[in-house]
Write a structure and sequence with these properties.
alpha/beta, 501 residues, two-stranded antiparallel sheet, nine-stranded mixed β-sheet
């Protein structure tokens, strides 16, 4: 599908309008649709008319219903993300919103080779996608979400779901496809302007700093004809978007003078009529596909400025937290959700680190202090420091991608309260007890020996001097042997000397 298509126009992240001419397609030209060669209009219609399962028969990703029709968040996302093999930041999120029966699922299947359920036109227009469904696009690192359509008769008495699901899609996505009939441009309700205003308004509460990532709103205009150029539609839509933004009265203080381009970037593309112009439709879809799946394409959509910077292993928890916040009908705070995610992940990782640390301590020389004979470990600090360094390294690796302030606070808690406080401190107290018994015995022996030396000529001041001298020796012995030579070696926060032991 790549390399052919109509004229497309878009706004660059800098706000400049540009257009790119691409070649036209003829009925005789041979195309490839997800590995299937097709030639001519008749074949195109046959291919596009197949069921979604047949189009994506080789799809390797399973679908997961993330949000049910009853507003419930699914437990299957975490298992699915692990199965799909995403790691670190090496993945992207895309969702599509728009009216019911607008061809959203069909478009996703053509773009990505997914197998979302499509409407059977022979049975009439009705709700097909129910809730929110996610899958990994085959042979890509893109997480694609198909969203229940808006303005459906099935949801006539429940418009809250489309508001909540649209907001979730906006927070979820780096790229949000806004699927819209060209004939609906300029219509307030049919174009979902009311919905966009609501999610723009609430979404603004998610961006507490000017440094938060933008979202690319990619408008896909369906059934476009040559009567009105794409550039004209684009200018009309951009004016409408700016008007919606200016009409928002409750912007946070830091966004009081902001423009819509400070939060969103915009692109626009038109698709020909799928039934009346099938070859041109396929060509148009090919252009859009190149923008979404080809990193080498000059107009590749998934730019670093849009990435949410959520590690893949924490993304299911992040998504759940966002949905729970949306459902709670309270002020939405994206940074706090990221901090909550970091706290959850740090707790999970710290729990594993503590378990390994306890096992390592039991197998070390430190465990000897609990044995018989009042054993004193000569280099308690050195042994303890080695174990602590290993434990902190095991914590630092998997937490490196999360909120730095939260990680630092959780690291300090891990070191002070759990590693040193819960595990090492009981051993240290036993070490001190053993040292006390040893020093007390040595003190008593030394005092008795010196008293015997003076015999009957011992004066009161000589006794006091003996006690003072031996007390000093005993204190020096405690300081030197309690932890070992490393006790005063460093003031670093990760050292044993800085933990209060």
């Amino acid at each position: 599908l790549r390399g052919v298509g109509p004229t497309t126009a878009l706004y660059t992240p800098e706000g400049d309008l540009r257009s790119t001419e691409v070649g036209k397609i003829s009925e005789e030209r041979t195309h490839t649709l997800h590995g299937r060669p097709t030639t001519g209009a008749t074949t195109h219609i046959a291919v596009m008319g197949e069921t979604a399962a047949a189009v994506a028969a080789d799809a390797s990703a399973d679908q997961v219903q993330v949000i049910t029709t009853d507003y419930e968040f699914s437990d299957g996302l975490e298992r699915a993300v692990a199965k799909w093999g995403f790691e670190g930041y090496d993945y992207h999120n895309l969702a599509i919103v728009g009216p019911q029966s607008g061809g959203k699922s069909t478009l996703l299947n053509l773009l990505f080779g997914t197998s979302f359920q499509e409407m059977d036109a022979a049975k009439g227009r009705s709700q097909t996608t129910k809730g929110l469904w996610v899958c990994r696009a085959p042979d890509t690192n893109i997480l694609v979400m198909d969203v229940e359509g808006t303005d459906s008769k099935e949801r006539a008495q429940d418009i809250n779901f489309e508001r909540k699901s649209a907001l979730f899609s906006l927070v979820f996505s780096e790229v949000l496809l806004v699927n819209m009939w060209t004939t609906d441009i300029g219509r307030y309700t049919a174009s979902n302007y009311a919905l966009l205003k609501i999610i723009f308004d609430i979404n603004l509460q998610l961006f507490q700093t000017k440094d938060s990532p933008k979202t690319l709103l990619y408008f896909v205009l369906r059934d476009h004809t040559d009567d009105t150029p794409l550039a004209t539609h684009q200018e009309s839509l951009m004016k409408d978007m700016r008007d919606i933004w200016e009409a928002m009265e409750n912007k946070p203080a830091q966004f009081a003078d902001s423009q819509i381009g400070d939060v969103f970037d915009f692109r626009f593309i038109s698709l020909a009529h799928k039934k009346l112009q099938p070859d041109k439709f396929v060509a148009d879809v090919g252009v859009l596909q190149g923008h979404l799946v080809d990193p080498h394409n000059a107009q590749y959509a998934f730019q670093p400025a849009y990435h949410r910077r959520i590690p893949a292993d924490g993304f299911p928890q992040y998504a759940r937290g966002i949905w729970e916040t949306i459902m709670s009908i309270k002020d939405l705070d994206l940074p706090s959700q990221m901090q909550m995610l970091a706290m959850c992940r740090c707790e999970d990782i710290a729990r594993d680190v503590v378990a390994s640390f306890e096992q390592a301590v039991r197998g070390s020389a430190l465990a000897r202090v609990k044995g018989e004979g009042n054993v004193v470990v000569d280099d308690f600090a050195g042994v303890a420091q080695t174990l602590i360094d290993a434990a902190l390294a095991a914590f630092d690796g998997p937490t490196a991608r999360y909120d730095k302030l939260v990680v630092a606070a959780q690291r300090e808690k891990l070191l002070g309260e759990r590693l040193c406080g819960s595990v090492l401190q009981p051993l240290f107290r036993r070490q001190i007890d053993n040292i006390s018994l040893r020093v007390l015995a040595a003190f008593k022996s030394a005092v008795v020996r010196k008293l015997g030396t003076y015999g009957e000529g011992l004066a009161a001041h000589n006794f006091a001097d003996i006690v003072r001298e031996e007390t000093g020796h005993a204190s020096a012995d405690v300081t030197a042997t309690s932890l070992g030579p490393n006790v005063l070696a460093t003031d670093a926060p990760t050292s044993v000397s800085a933990t209060g032991l």
